[in-house]
Design brief:
Chain C: Pfam families: Spore_permease (PF03845). The complex is a heterotrimer of chains A (about 500), B (about 375) and C (about 350). Chain B has 14 helices and 13 strands. By secondary structure, chain B is α/β, with parallel strands linked by helices. Chain B folds into two domains: about 200 residues, no CATH class; about 140 residues, Nutrient germinant receptor protein C, domain 3 (GMP Synthetase, Chain A, domain 3). With about 350 residues, chain C is an all-alpha fold. Chain C has a single domain, classed as Orthogonal Bundle (Hydantoin permease), CATH 1.10.4160.10. Helix content of chain C is about 75%, strand content about 0%. Classes of the chains: A alpha+beta (about 500), B alpha/beta (about 375), C mainly alpha (about 350).
C-alpha cells in the first residue's frame, strides 16, 4: 500500500501497524518538527501517542491520559489490541471530548486542533482526546463596542471559548451549534449558531449550503466568509451582515431569530441578516431609560447624517446655494474663504483625505509613537494650516464635526468614509442637484438589499408598526414580555411583498 | 446576470461623470461673489441710477471673524436705461458677480414710476435669488444718499434700514411694504403705502461738547417721519403721518402696538395700546358698501388706574383717539387721494366677484364711496 | 415579480403626482379658485375611471390590459402594448424635458442642459432596473420626505396668508372650472400607471387608488390654497409657484427653503422617471419578448431623452411646456381599454397558457 502524503491523505485509511502509521504521519506532515510521537506499551500492546508541540496541555496529558494508562498497565500485564482499544474508548473517561477516527484526514484535523491521538497496534483506527492547551487570549473587554452599563466581556480568537460564552447566557436546548470546517488548507472551525424555534428553517438551510460551498484555501477571519453569504456584497454599498464581538449582543440577535457564524481565529462574529436600523442600537439601550435611549438614538441618526452629508452639503450650499445660509453666517464664511488659495471643494477633499491618513496612521502606529499623530494632526495641520491661510477656520469646524460624528457609529465607518467623499465630489460638481441624485441612487441601492428574504430597510420600509418602535426608541420590557418579535416577521413572501 | 451588471455599471458611470463634471469650471465660489444687501434706485430723466451697498470686510483672514465694529460695506454706482442694465454696469466696475440672495432693502426716489411693477422688478422676478420679502422704501432725497450712509450698528450697514422699518411697523408709526406685497397685486389696481426714510444728522453741539468724539456719536441716524401714498404707480404729494400710519395698521389688523399720549384729568398720560382681536368686513346695505371694523384693544397706562370709573374714562379716551386715527387715515386715503391702501378692493373682489367685474373700470369711484363703521372696544389693563 | 404593498403603491403614486404638483405651470389667466374647483371635478371623474379599473381587476386579478390582450391575441396585444408604451414614453419625454427646462432656468449658469438630461436619464434607468419592489420601498421614504418639506413650507408661511385672495371674479366661471378639470385630468398620467400596475399590487389596489386620489386632492388643494393665499397674483407670474413659495419661506436656521425643495423635487423627478421607464420597459418586452429587462429599460429611456434634446438645445421647450398633454390618451388607456376588455374578453383559456 502506498504511503499517503499531504496531497492524498484525507480519505486514506489508518495503517494497522504502528510503524506504518507513524511513517505515514511523518510523510504527510513532512517530518515536521512539532510532531511528537511517543511509543508506549499498554498491557503489552504497542501503542503510539501522537500530539503537536505546544497544542496540548502537558499537565492534562500526564494527569488524564498517562496516569490512567500506566495504572491499567500495572493492573493488567497482558491484553490484546481490542481490549486496549475498548478501555481507551468505552471503559475509561480520559478526557471530556473523545472520538474514534478511521482515516488520516480526521487524524490530521484533530491533531492540528490540539487533540492527542492514540494508535493501537493491529487496528485500523485511532482514538482522539481533546486536551487542548495552546496559548490563547483570555476574555477581555471589547475593543470596538464599548458600553457603560453592560457586560464587559467579549469574544476571543478561540471558537470554543466563544461558544461557551453564548451557551452560558442562553440556557435553552433550542440553541443549536453546527460546527463545520471551511478552508481546503486551513480547515478552520466555523460554527453556525441559531435558535431552532426562532430562526427561519429556510434561512438556516440556505446559509448552511452557502457555507459548505465555500472553496477557499484559508479562512482566517469572518471577512473571508462574508462575500459568500451576502448576496449583494459586490453591488451594495452597505452590508446585510453585521459583526459583533459582544456575547450579549449575539444572544440578543439569536433570540430575534438571526443566525450567527463564529469563525475560529477571530473574535468577530457574523450576524445574518442584519437591518440598517440596528447599526444605531447598542446594548446600553437595554440598560437605560427609554427617554434617554430615544434621545441617544436620534442623536446617532443625526450623527450619521452629519458624518455622511455635512461636508458635501456645506460645499454644495456654499458654492451653488449661498442664499440658504443666514446672512451673518454667510458673511463670516465669505471673510474666511477670501484668503484661501484653493476652491472650497479642493479644500474639503484635502482635509478629509488628510484626516483619513492620520486615522490610518494612528491605527497602525505602535502605541508609544501614537501620540505623535495627534500632535502633528492637531497643531501642525490644524492650527498652522489655518494661520497660514491654506484652509479656513469654518472648514476645520465642519471637518471636526464630521469626523467626530463618524466615530459614533463605528459599524458603518467604511460606508460613511466613502459616501462622504462621494458627496463632497458630487456636491462640489453639481451642488444640491447632484446630492439629491446621489441620495436617490443610494436609497435605491439600500432598498435593493433583501438577503435571506429580509429587507435591509425593515421595519421602516416595508413598514412594520411593531418594529418601528425599536427604530424610534426602544420598546418597553413589558411589551417584550407580551410579544417578542423576530426577524421572521420582516420576511418577504415569495412575490417580494411583506408577509 | 453579468450583462445586467455591465449595464448597471455603465449607467452609474454616466451618472457619475455627468454629476462630477456638469459644472466643471462654471461654478462661482463664495469668495468670488460680491454680496449685495441694499439697493438704491433713483429715476431721473429716463435713466436709472442704481447704487448698491455691497459687502466689503475691513479685516480679512482665514482665521479672522467678521469685525462688527466696522460698517463692512462699499457703495457702487452705475446708471442705465433699466435697473438690470445699471446692475450689470456695477458688476463690470467691481469685476465680480453680484449676488442678490441676501438683498434686504430696495430704496427708490420719489420720481420712480411704479405703474408697471413687472417691468420695474424684472431683475428680481427673473433672478431666483432675490428674496420676495425684500423691504421697499422711498428716500427723502435720493436713494444714492441713503446708500452712501455708512453705519456701524449691526453686522453691516444695511441691517439698520430694515431694523428701522421693522421697529416703525412694530410701534405703529409706519406701514411695511415688501416686494411680495407689490407683486401679489400685479394684475390689480396698484395702491401702495411705502415708508419714507430720511437721514438725521447728529446734533453739532453735542458732538463738540466732548473732547473725544466716538465714531458712533458721529454717525447719522435713520428715521421714518412719514409714509408715502402711491396711486397707480405715482408717488402722491400727500403723506401719512405717524398717527395716520397707526390708523392704517389698526384698520388692516397689522398693528402690534402703538404708544400715544392722552389728556387724562388735564395731564398728559402715556398709553401703550396693543391689539387683542380684529375683523374687517365688507357689507352691501341696499346698494351701499359699508366696511365694518371690529377692533378690540388693550390699553397699558403709565399710571395705576384702580377704579372702574377711571378705567372707563381712559378706555373712552383711547377709543376716541383710535377712532380719530382710523377715520383720519380712511378719509385721507380713500376719499381725498382715492388710494385704497387697506385692501378693501380685495374684500370687494372676494365677496362680490361679479360686481367687481362689473365695476372693474370704475373701481376708484366705487371704493371712494365705501363708508366706514368702527366698533372699537378698549380694556384698560 | 415582486408585488407592491398597498402603502408602497400609494406612496409611489403620490410621489409621481408630487412632481407634477411642484412643476405646476399656471396659465397667465388662471384663477386659483377655479383651479381648485376644477381639481375636485377631475377627481370625481377619475374615481369613476378607477371603478372601471377595479371591475377589470376583479375579473382578471393577475393581468393588466397588456398581458390580458397579449394572452388572447398576439397582434392585438402588441397593439395595446404599443399604445401604453407610446403614452409612457410621451410622459417620460415631458418629465425629462420639463425638469431640464426648469433646472436650466434656475441654474443656467452652472449645468448645461445636455448634462442634466444625461444625468437624470441615467439615474432614472438605475431606478427602473432595480425592480418594482425596490421602487415601492423607495417611494415610501420619498413620500415622507416630501410631506416633511411641504409641512415646513406651510408652517413657515402661516403668518403671511390671507383668504381674501380667493375670488371668482372671472367672466366665465363655469368654462374656467371645466378647463381646469380637463388640464388636471391631462396631468393625471398616474391613471395609466394604475391600470398597468394593478395586478402587481397586493390587497385591494382599487381601494388604495381611491385613497390616493383623495389624498392627492387634499394635497393639491392645500398647496394651491397656500400659494394663492401668500403669493396672490404673483402665483401667475412665477414660473414655478411652488418654488416661489419656498423662496419666500424663512426660518431662523435656514434663510430660504427653495434649495431644499429643489433637492426633493430632483429626487421625485428621478423617481417618477424610474417608474415610467420601468412601465415602458415592460411594455417594450411584451412587444419584443426576446429583449432583456435591462435592455428594455435602457431603450425606453434613451428614446425620450434623445427626443427632448431637439427642443431643449435650441431653447424651444417653452412652447411644449405650456401646451401640455391632452387627456384623451389617458381616458383611452385608463378607461376605454379596460372597459373593452371587460366587454369582449372572456375569462378562460389563454392562448399562451403553459401546462
Amino acid at each position: 500500500m502506498n504511503t499517503p502524503d499531504f496531497r492524498n491523505y484525507k480519505n486514506a485509511e489508518i495503517d494497522k501497524t504502528i510503524d506504518a502509521a507513524m511513517t505515514s504521519l511523518r510523510t504527510i506532515t513532512g517530518n515536521s518538527m512539532d510532531l511528537n510521537i511517543m511509543n508506549v506499551k499498554i498491557c503489552s500492546v504497542s501503542c503510539a501517542l501522537v500530539s503537536i508541540e505546544g497544542m496540548i496541555s502537558t499537565s492534562a496529558m500526564s494527569e488524564l491520559i498517562f496516569r490512567p494508562i500506566m495504572e491499567l498497565s500495572a493492573q493488567k500485564s497482558k491484553g490484546n489490541s481490542e481490549q486496549v482499544f475498548d478501555f481507551l474508548t468505552k471503559e475509561s473517561l480520559l478526557a471530556a471530548e473523545r472520538k474514534t477516527v478511521f482515516n488520516y484526514g480526521d487524524v490530521i484535523q484533530f491533531l492540528f486542533s490540539g487533540f492527542a491521538v492514540i494508535f493501537v497496534e493491529g487496528l485500523s483506527k485511532a482514538v482522539v482526546y481533546g486536551i487542548q492547551g495552546y496559548d490563547k487570549r483570555s476574555v477581555s473587554e471589547p475593543a470596538s463596542e464599548q458600553t457603560i452599563m453592560c457586560a464587559q466581556d467579549s469574544f476571543t480568537e478561540t471558537i470554543r471559548t466563544n461558544i461557551s460564552l453564548v451557551r452560558r447566557r442562553m440556557k435553552t436546548p433550542s440553541l443549536r451549534f453546527e460546527m463545520m470546517q471551511i478552508g481546503k488548507r486551513s480547515s478552520t472551525d466555523v460554527c453556525m449558531v441559531y435558535m431552532s424555534d426562532r430562526a427561519s428553517s429556510d434561512a438556516v438551510d440556505r446559509l448552511r449550503k452557502q457555507l459548505k460551498g465555500i472553496k477557499l484555501d484559508t479562512v482566517l477571519t469572518s471577512g473571508y466568509i462574508e462575500p459568500f453569504i451576502d448576496e449583494g456584497f459586490g453591488s451594495s454599498v452597505f452590508s446585510q451582515m453585521a459583526y459583533s464581538e459582544r456575547p450579549d449582543m449575539i444572544c440578543t440577535r439569536l433570540n430575534q431569530g438571526r443566525i450567527c457564524v463564529f469563525v475560529d481565529g477571530t473574535p468577530f462574529v457574523l450576524i445574518c441578516p442584519s437591518l440598517f436600523a440596528e447599526n444605531f442600537q447598542t446594548m446600553d439601550d437595554f440598560a437605560e431609560k427609554p427617554f434617554y435611549v430615544t434621545f441617544m438614538r436620534w442623536l446617532k441618526y443625526i450623527a450619521f447624517f452629519l458624518a455622511v452629508a455635512f461636508p458635501g452639503l456645506y460645499v454644495a450650499l456654499a458654492s451653488f446655494h449661498p442664499e440658504v445660509f443666514t446672512l451673518k453666517l454667510l458673511l463670516n464664511l465669505a471673510v474666511s474663504e477670501e484668503s484661501t488659495p484653493y476652491p472650497l471643494t479642493v479644500e474639503v477633499l484635502v482635509l478629509m483625505l488628510l484626516f483619513e491618513i492620520m486615522k490610518e496612521a494612528g491605527l497602525r502606529l505602535p502605541k508609544p509613537v501614537g501620540s505623535t499623530v495627534s500632535i502633528v494632526g492637531g497643531l501642525i495641520i490644524g492650527d498652522a494650516a489655518v494661520k497660514s491661510g491654506l484652509v479656513s477656520a469654518p472648514l476645520l469646524i465642519v471637518v471636526g464635526i464630521t469626523t467626530t460624528s463618524s466615530f459614533v457609529i463605528p459599524s458603518l465607518y467604511q460606508q460613511t468614509a466613502i459616501l462622504r467623499l462621494v458627496y463632497i465630489l458630487v456636491g462640489g460638481g453639481s451642488g444640491l442637484y447632484g446630492i439629491a441624485l446621489c441620495t436617490v441612487l443610494l436609497m435605491i441601492n439600500i432598498n435593493s438589499m433583501d438577503d435571506l428574504a429580509v429587507s435591509y430597510t425593515a421595519p421602516v420600509t416595508p413598514f412594520f408598526s411593531k418594529g418601528i418602535k425599536d427604530v424610534i426608541s426602544r420598546r418597553s420590557f413589558r411589551s417584550y414580555e407580551k410579544t417578542h418579535s423576530t426577524i421572521k416577521e420582516y420576511k418577504l413572501d415569495e412575490k417580494g411583498g411583506s408577509q | 446576470m453579468k450583462k445586467r451588471k455591465i449595464q448597471v455599471a455603465v449607467v452609474l458611470f454616466i451618472a457619475a461623470v455627468t454629476l462630477l463634471f456638469s459644472s466643471f469650471g462654471r461654478q462661482v465660489d463664495i469668495e468670488e461673489r460680491v454680496l449685495c444687501h441694499a439697493m438704491g434706485v433713483d429715476y431721473e430723466n429716463g435713466e436709472y441710477n442704481v447704487s448698491l451697498q455691497v459687502f466689503k470686510t475691513q479685516s480679512m483672514g482665514s482665521d479672522t471673524p467678521l469685525d462688527v465694529s466696522q460698517s463692512n460695506i462699499q457703495t457702487v454706482n452705475c446708471k442705465g436705461r433699466s435697473i438690470r442694465d445699471a446692475i450689470e454696469g456695477c458688476q463690470y466696475q467691481i469685476g465680480r458677480e453680484i449676488f442678490f440672495g441676501h438683498l434686504q432693502i430696495i430704496c427708490f426716489n420719489k420720481n420712480t414710476d411704479f405703474s408697471s411693477p413687472e417691468e420695474l422688478f424684472s431683475f428680481a422676478i427673473k433672478d431666483k435669488n432675490v428674496f420676495l420679502g425684500v423691504e421697499l422704501c422711498l428716500a427723502e432725497n435720493t436713494a444714492e444718499e441713503l446708500m452712501n450712509v455708512q453705519l456701524t450698528r449691526g453686522t453691516m450697514s444695511s441691517e439698520n434700514f430694515t431694523q428701522v422699518i421693522k421697529m416703525g411697523v412694530k410701534n405703529g408709526v409706519t406701514v411695511e411694504c415688501r416686494l411680495i406685497d407689490l407683486l401679489s397685486c400685479i394684475r390689480s389696481p396698484q395702491y401702495i403705502a411705502m415708508p419714507v426714510i430720511s437721514i438725521k444728522q447728529p446734533l453739532g453741539d453735542f458732538a463738540e461738547s466732548h473732547e473725544e468724539k466716538s465714531a458712533e456719536q458721529q454717525e447719522p441716524l435713520l428715521e421714518i417721519k412719514k409714509t408715502a401714498l402711491i396711486r397707480k404707480g405715482t408717488v402722491l404729494e400727500s403723506y401719512l403721518s405717524h398717527a395716520d400710519a397707526s390708523g392704517c395698521l389698526w384698520l388692516t389688523g397689522k398693528a402690534e402696538q402703538y404708544s400715544d399720549i392722552i389728556e387724562y384729568n388735564g395731564s398728559p398720560m402715556d398709553v401703550r395700546i396693543t391689539s387683542d382681536s380684529h375683523s374687517l368686513k365688507l357689507d352691501n346695505e341696499n346698494g351701499r358698501l359699508v366696511c365694518r371694523l371690529k377692533l378690540s384693544v388693550l390699553a397699558h397706562t403709565s399710571l395705576d388706574i384702580r377704579d372702574e370709573k377711571s378705567s372707563d374714562k381712559v378706555a373712552a379716551l383711547v377709543k376716541q383717539r383710535l377712532e380719530e386715527n382710523i377715520t383720519g387715515v380712511w378719509n385721507k386715503a380713500m376719499y381725498e387721494n382715492r388710494t385704497d391702501i387697506f385692501d378693501v378692493w380685495r374684500l370687494f373682489r372676494h365677496k362680490y366677484p361679479q360686481s367687481y367685474l362689473k365695476y372693474a373700470d370704475r373701481l376708484d369711484e366705487v371704493l371712494g364711496s365705501v363708508e366706514l363703521e368702527t366698533d372699537i372696544t378698549c380694556r384698560v389693563s | 415579480m415582486k408585488k407592491l404593498t398597498p402603502s408602497q403603491f400609494f406612496a409611489m403614486l403620490i410621489c409621481t403626482r408630487a412632481f407634477s404638483m411642484m412643476t405646476f405651470l399656471p396659465e397667465s389667466t388662471a384663477n386659483a379658485l377655479e383651479l381648485m374647483l376644477g381639481t375636485m371635478l377631475s377627481t370625481a371623474f377619475q374615481i369613476v375611471m378607477i371603478c372601471g379599473m377595479a371591475a377589470f381587476h376583479k375579473r382578471f386579478p393577475n393581468d393588466d390590459p397588456c398581458t390580458l390582450v397579449v394572452s388572447r391575441s398576439k397582434w392585438a396585444g402588441r397593439g395595446v402594448c404599443t399604445m401604453y408604451l407610446a403614452y409612457f414614453l410621451t410622459v417620460s419625454f415631458y418629465v425629462i424635458g420639463t425638469f431640464t427646462y426648469f433646472m436650466d432656468y434656475y441654474f443656467s449658469d452652472y449645468i448645461p442642459r445636455l448634462m442634466i438630461v444625461l444625468s437624470v436619464a441615467a439615474c432614472g434607468i438605475y431606478v427602473a432596473m432595480s425592480g418594482l419592489g425596490v421602487i415601492g420601498k423607495t417611494g415610501t421614504v420619498l413620500f415622507v420626505l416630501f410631506l416633511f418639506v411641504t409641512s415646513i413650507l406651510v408652517i413657515s408661511s402661516l403668518e403671511d396668508f390671507t383668504f381674501v385672495d380667493f375670488h371668482l371674479a372671472e367672466r366665465n366661471v363655469g368654462k374656467g372650472i371645466f378647463h381646469s378639470a380637463v388640464s388636471e385630468l391631462a396631468r393625471s398620467s398616474y391613471l395609466a400607471v394604475i391600470a398597468f400596475l394593478l395586478p402587481s399590487t397586493k390587497g385591494n389596489a382599487a381601494k388604495t387608488s381611491v385613497y390616493f386620489l383623495l389624498t392627492r386632492l387634499a394635497l393639491v388643494e392645500i398647496v394651491l390654497g397656500f400659494i394663492t393665499m401668500i403669493l396672490g397674483d404673483y402665483t401667475l407670474l412665477a414660473k414655478l409657484p411652488f418654488f416661489a413659495l419656498a423662496a419666500f419661506s424663512r426660518t431662523a436656521i435656514i434663510e430660504r427653503y427653495d434649495a431644499a425643495v429643489m433637492g426633493v423635487w430632483v429626487m421625485l423627478s428621478v423617481y417618477k422617471l424610474g417608474v415610467y421607464f420601468h412601465c415602458s420597459g415592460r411594455c417594450l418586452r411584451y412587444v419584443f419578448p426576446k429583449l432583456g429587462s435591462g435592455s428594455g429599460v435602457i431603450i425606453t429611456a434613451v428614446i425620450p431623452a434623445a427626443a427632448t434634446l431637439f427642443w431643449l438645445l435650441p431653447h424651444k421647450w417653452e412652447s411644449i411646456a405650456y401646451a401640455g398633454l391632452s387627456p384623451i390618451p389617458l381616458i383611452f388607456l385608463g378607461g376605454v381599454i379596460p372597459l373593452l376588455c371587460l366587454i369582449f374578453v372572456k375569462k378562460g383559456a389563454r392562448s399562451d397558457e403553459k401546462a
